[in-house]
Amino acid sequence: MPYVNIKITREGATSEQKARLIAGVTSLLQTELGKNPATTVVVIEEVDTDNWGIGGESVTVRRQKGQ
Amino acid sequence: MPYVNIKITREGATSEQKARLIAGVTSLLQTELGKNPATTVVVIEEVDTDNWGIGGESVTVRRQKGQ
Amino acid sequence: MPYVNIKITREGATSEQKARLIAGVTSLLQTELGKNPATTVVVIEEVDTDNWGIGGESVTVRRQKGQ
Amino acid sequence: MPYVNIKITREGATSEQKARLIAGVTSLLQTELGKNPATTVVVIEEVDTDNWGIGGESVTVRRQKGQ
Amino acid sequence: MPYVNIKITREGATSEQKARLIAGVTSLLQTELGKNPATTVVVIEEVDTDNWGIGGESVTVRRQKGQ
Amino acid sequence: MPYVNIKITREGATSEQKARLIAGVTSLLQTELGKNPATTVVVIEEVDTDNWGIGGESVTVRRQKGQ
């Protein structure tokens, strides 16, 4: 019955990559905590780099600086 | 003063449906918990079916399988 | 398959009140959007009044002022 | 190491405004709580006015009424 | 730079189990999406069974019914 | 009308510190984005160090290692 929310920057993750992420997280919760995969919900949110900040700067700015 | 976040798959919910959902949740919080509707906030997030997983699979894949 | 997160201040909501809230929100999503109740998840989070702010003040302070 | 999620209605916030918001929140957490800015994450989410409710109505409807 | 929020019912997960979950999710994001583990944040929230609903009922009630 | 959720590790933030954080974030949203402080909601969540991971390790473990 777990609920997992994964936020990543929107930078071209494919449907296949997201499908593997969903499968992997669901499997991990079963292996480590015995959670039932049938009711494990995973929601992936992709966030524009202008809207994601770390170290006081947006990822857009960090990428421009080569970080 | 409650804050309610509703996540659903993006599959064509109309403005009217979302307006009724906002009204209904706000009313329910007043009826059941005595919360003031004036400061009840409801945020609906619509998520692509590729980005929503249940049972270890994305909803996109489940829909293709007829689930 | 919706996921609903309800945040309220921690001020003595009972198990019965929370059960009715869970039932009511689940029913509303079925009625308004046709969502399957079997996979509708509702998570209620109760937050200390020191940790909830509105209008730039904590709810603790607002309650002391009679607001 | 804080994580801050800011949800606002989607009404034209610019990259520059969002950059200043990220910088300001990160700085505030350092000043008030001594948090390390290098690992402070800020995620801004912009929500359609149809999907944001307050007082039981969507912001779209409230704006039409001049509220 | 991903941010992962995992909500589970509060039913005795140990520190060791949670540590393995943190390690596993971080590793998965590196393997599947190439994300830097150094800035991957994982937050686990444990929720009382009274406050978690599925199928319109709280987990407390479902457990009493043997579900 | 913004909603701000701030997650920090539970390490003794005082009511006064949290009150200043609420005031500061609310003011920042008014200054930078013109948001009405009366309807700005700030929710602070304090998370056990066992439940917060960064770099694939819990904060509990990192603190033991002197990080």
Explain this structure.
Six copies of one chain form a homohexamer. By secondary structure, chain A is of the alpha+beta class. Chain A has a single domain, classed as 2-Layer Sandwich (Macrophage Migration Inhibitory Factor). Chain A contains two helices and four strands, in the order βαβββα. Chain A has helices at 15-33, 59-64, and strands spanning 3-9, 41-47, 52-54, 57-58. In chain A, strands 1-2 form a two-stranded parallel ribbon. In chain A, strands 3-4 form a two-stranded antiparallel ribbon. Chain A is elongated. In chain A, 45% of the residues are buried. At the A-E interface, strand 1 and helix 1 of A face strand 1 and helix 1 of E. Strand 1 of chain D pairs antiparallel with strand 1 of chain F.
Quick gist of this model?
The first copy, chain A, has 67 residues and is α+β, with helices and mostly antiparallel strands. Chain A has helices at 15-33, 59-64, and strands at residues 3-9, 41-47, 52-54, 57-58.
Secondary-structure content class of chain A: alpha+beta
Q: Per DSSP, what share of the residues of chain A sits in E-state strands of 2 or more residues?
A: 25-35%
Oligomerization category of the chains in this entry: homohexamer
Helix content of chain A: 25-40%
SSE arrangement of chain A, N to C: EHEEEH
The CATH homologous superfamily of chain A is called Macrophage Migration Inhibitory Factor
Number of domains of chain A: 1
